[in-house]
Amino acid sequence: MKSTYWTRRIGVYLLFAFSCICTAVAFGQDGKSTFADYCAGCHGAELQGGLAGPLIKTDWNYGRRRGDMIRNVTYGIADTEMIAWGEVLSKEEIRGVVNYIVESQTTPPTAERQLPTLIESELMTLKVEVVVDDGLAIPWGIDFIDANRLIISERSGQLRWIVNGKLDSTPIRGTPKTVDDRTGGYMDVIVDPNYAENRWIYLAHSFTPFDPSDRSAPAMTRIVRGRVEDHEWVDQEVLFQVADSLLVVNGNRWGCRFLFDVGGHLFFTIGDMARGDFAQNLDRPAGKIFRIWPDGSVPNDNPFVDRSGALSAIYSFGNRNVQGLAIHPTTQKIWFTEHGPMGGDELNVLEEGGNFGWPIITYGVDYSGEIVSEKTHMDGMIQPIMQWTPSIAISPALFVDHPNWSTWQNDLLVGALAYEEVRRIRIKDEVVTHQELILKNLGRIRDLHMGPDGNIYILSNNPDRLIKLVP
User: Fold this and answer.
1) Strand, helix or coil at 154?
2) Residue 68, φ and ψ in degrees, nearest 5
């Protein structure tokens, strides 16, 4: 009886697998004919290029995953000759075209690229060295304790040490439970500027007071600090946690990036949690940048500390999802990078009490193609220094400030997730005057840090690794 049962089960599985393979092949075949009818006139019958660029290639400027390509075909690519086909082709036809393009490649688009050993940038030659390329699981943030030791957060809910360039195999125990979400979980980690005296480490994570494994449980980004003793998280203090009434269900875009300013304030960010309208409400935590003291208390001069009903820790609002914070070495102003929707990634300068407009003004549209807002400007709402359309999924930010990097001094480095880039941005009087692409298609760039050794450390996902640039 058992063998008959399992024989039937295996037969069903094989039939299902065969059906999936046939469906994929059919999509590829249909995609080839659709490509011939609609795409070959520009891209060439053999994808070799013509009026438009070739599609047999290894460099994918606008995303190299199927989802990226489907979006590009459906909605087009702004400021290029690639038009939108979503009103002409069905979803199945677009998927077939993308499958055909992917299956025609000699090098799979998502194949891991070989890391270069040298980069010839416009102003200097850089050596690329691997620090850790094994054992990490979706790392999110890093910070240095000293020249030999740094701490790293992993999205699923772990803190790890890297000591003398080696990943400690033992995670830190006793850290807080988290909601492991694709845009949340454990996020940024930062070391107290006075760590040598107080040993505080700060962590941002997705938190619910209910069951963290229940994806429908109400939740919100929370800020805690603790100390580490013999791989044990101890002395935890909660610095920012909203009332249960302000938690959201099925949240998305949690933030969160940290920064200490020169005055000792701790800044942190929370995304709009997929509730865009909340970003304009001062009684809601979503879509904001916050400022607190390291012990969690609120500075008396915060812009909304005396506003009835407002969360007193708010420093700015109308922010969709801030992913990078950096201090300009000369002006000491805080700059930040912010995810737009589909289009409209932003580079901004932080202003006390500033309204950065989301979702009332934006340069992007929704992922569905629907209009978020017809407006890009409005009185009382701050314009970005720069915006990227299409979105590169801009993420970390780092101002270069070290004698080893004199030709890059005061330049801004930004990383991108979807476009897998590191860019160098030259700024004069708060105007972007030049951009240079430093890295491309080597992983989703999650964090950037200037190390105590004067090297620039780059943390990535897919592949999960830590590398450094040496001038």
Assistant:
1) strand
2) -60, -45
Q: Judge whether 463 lies within some domain.
A: yes
CA distance 289 to 264: 16
In a 3-state reduction of DSSP, which class is residue 376?
Answer: coil
Residues 125 and 17 in one domain: no
Distance CA 228, CA 226 (A): 7
CA 230 to chain centroid, in Å, comes to 31
Structure tokens at 470: 């040496």
Q: Is the pTM of this model over 0.70?
A: yes
DSSP conformational letter for 270: E
78 part of a folded domain: yes
For residue 112, is it within any domain? no
What would you report as the CA-atom Rg of the chain, rounded to the nearest whole angstrom? 24
Contact 267, 325 (CB under 8 A): yes
Which residues on adjacent β-strands are paired with residue 421? 416, 440
Across 287-304, b (16+ Cβ under 10 Å) vs e yields bbbbbbebebebbeebbb
Mean pLDDT, 10 residues at a time, over the chain (471 residues)? 40 36 46 85 86 87 88 85 86 89 90 94 98 97 97 98 96 96 94 98 98 94 97 98 97 96 98 97 98 98 97 98 98 98 97 98 92 96 97 97 98 97 98 98 97 98 98 96
Token pair for 290: 């916050």
CATH of the domain at 172: 2.120.10.30
CATH number of the domain residue 63 falls in:
1.10.760.10
Q: Both 254 and 279 in a single domain?
A: yes
Query: Which pair of structure tokens corresponds to residue 162?
Result: 């890297």
Q: In whole angstroms, what is the distance from residue 323 CA to residue 132 CA?
A: 23
Q: Is 27 helix (H, G, I), strand (E, B) or coil?
A: helix
DSSP H/E element including 98: helix 91-103
pLDDT at 288: 98
| Residue that finishes a domain, picked among 103, 133, 166 | 103
The number of folded domains in the chain is 2
Measure the N-to-C terminal CA separation of the chain; round to a whole number of Å: 69
Exposure b/e, 190-204, CB count within 10 A at least 16 = b:
bbbeebeeebbbbbb
